[in-house]
């Protein structure tokens, strides 16, 4: 009995200790972020939309997902089949929008499962009877552009290209900005002065003119745009990182790390950087918005990704050239605005989650 009572007393003392274990800083930030309902749901919607765009061929494609023909199963989404495979006369790749091929699939014992939208982003429907650009219809949900391509498909894949471009450019710019700002802020003195003067000279270069020059020399593409925009996309962030390092390098924990014999790089990356990441994390959604707008602007001017790569900027240019085709501009503008609003709401919520003063004030206001 005494042993059982002692065990119960020990468990009673352990349970309160476990109950009051403080969560990690990352979990506290995530908890405060979830309390920002608008930003939290914006994150969920944005992630779901991006995941759906990554699975674009399952939603919008000119090839069936699965075909059963003459007792055999075919998967045109993953393999190219000749027209002669399905009773055609030519060994060329099958056109699954051809009424003859569709008629073969409608024969008894055969079937084809198509995606909800029967068009890829570069599909030209040669069998359409409506002149291009055609208004929204049952066949083309958001109409077609001036070349007969499905607008919904180009918006779906254009959204994916824009987000991928924004993620890659934001990642590269963040790494370069952190490295440049950390070196200047930690070492200070001549390193800081020389670095600031070099950044001022570099930022004075005409970025748009360089893009025009390189676009005339090389074929514009995703990689070229990433490289050129990354050369300038880190400058603004480096100023914030530099300011944080200048402010934190005189803190007691940095002096203690120096007294323990840690190297400069260990102090920078293990101690200073984790305590200087607040402005970096806060600006990530806004930097991504800027990258998406930069790609859209360049595509609108004809300096972006080459055709037939789907692009929101190219669709806006088509809407400008075809003012009577209102469905092109309206749908593209709606997707772009929705994307930027979601990123803005996420950035505001992330800023509030990282700033404990704002979170405490909002919590106190909610309790009242």
TrEMBL record:
<dbReference type="Pfam" id="PF00528">
    <property type="entry name" value="BPD_transp_1"/>
</dbReference>
<protein>
    <submittedName>
        <fullName>Microcin C transport system permease protein</fullName>
    </submittedName>
</protein>
<dbReference type="InterPro" id="IPR000515">
    <property type="entry name" value="MetI-like"/>
</dbReference>
<dbReference type="Pfam" id="PF12911">
    <property type="entry name" value="OppC_N"/>
</dbReference>
<keyword id="KW-0813">Transport</keyword>
<dbReference type="InterPro" id="IPR035906">
    <property type="entry name" value="MetI-like_sf"/>
</dbReference>
<feature type="transmembrane region" description="Helical">
    <location>
        <begin position="165"/>
        <end position="187"/>
    </location>
</feature>
<keyword id="KW-0472">Membrane</keyword>
<dbReference type="InterPro" id="IPR025966">
    <property type="entry name" value="OppC_N"/>
</dbReference>
<comment type="similarity">
    <text>Belongs to the binding-protein-dependent transport system permease family.</text>
</comment>
<dbReference type="GO" id="GO:0005886">
    <property type="term" value="C:plasma membrane"/>
</dbReference>
<feature type="transmembrane region" description="Helical">
    <location>
        <begin position="325"/>
        <end position="347"/>
    </location>
</feature>
<feature type="domain" description="ABC transmembrane type-1">
    <location>
        <begin position="159"/>
        <end position="347"/>
    </location>
</feature>
<dbReference type="GO" id="GO:0055085">
    <property type="term" value="P:transmembrane transport"/>
</dbReference>
<dbReference type="GO" id="GO:0042884">
    <property type="term" value="P:microcin transport"/>
</dbReference>
<keyword id="KW-1133">Transmembrane helix</keyword>
<keyword id="KW-0812">Transmembrane</keyword>
<feature type="transmembrane region" description="Helical">
    <location>
        <begin position="38"/>
        <end position="59"/>
    </location>
</feature>
